[in-house]
Write the structure tokens for this entry.
Amino acid sequence: MGLGCCPCCHKVVKMQAETQQCPRCHRSFSVRKINSLSHTFAWTIAALVMLVPANLYPMMIYYTLGQPEASTILEGIATFIQFGMYPVAIVIFIASFVVPLAKIIGLFILMYHAKRASKLTVKQQGQLYHIVEFLGPWSMLDVFVVAIMAAVVNLGFLSSIEAAKGITYFGLMVVFTMLAAESFDARLLWDAQDQKPQTDDSQSQLNQAGSR
């Protein structure tokens, strides 16, 4: 219909060009997100790269009587299990492994289905996109746990906790996945689905022509 919605103030305006300025809030926007798949793919790859050092480098350093003891994510989970703190271990495992991996895999699935017709319905693909978008902020739960522990467990020379370099990579990974989900244009899923019947019809016409 030649209409566009401003992503800032949600004013519907008549699109005169591919990119134009909103008359109400003066923000530049376009009908579709420009180079959506390229940006989403780049951010997702960056998040996948950050996931490796985030799990290899220690997330926090625990000082006991002045002696440092570094702990990675896996070592932290094993320590919580050893002390019988199973709920905390489960929360850390879900926030540190399940949620980031699920979001990265979900983004790759969405990009794959946006490029070609899928057996999944548009509703199912839309639900997957909303799940990926919803998981974004919850990935920061592990960072919040380390920050809270560093603030609470601070007894000077006896014991203290400080964040290590692994938390930087983990935080970057979470930010990159959030940017990837924001860059993805969900309307591409509808475009791929709309092209599916046309592809099937053209294929059937070719088969009929070949049989003749």
Q: What stands out?
A: Residues 35-194 form a domain with the Butyryl-CoA Dehydrogenase, subunit A; domain 3 fold (CATH 1.20.140). The radius of gyration is 23 Å. Strands lie at 3-5, 12-14, 19-21, 28-30, 60-64, 67-71, 159-163. The longest strand covers residues 60-64.
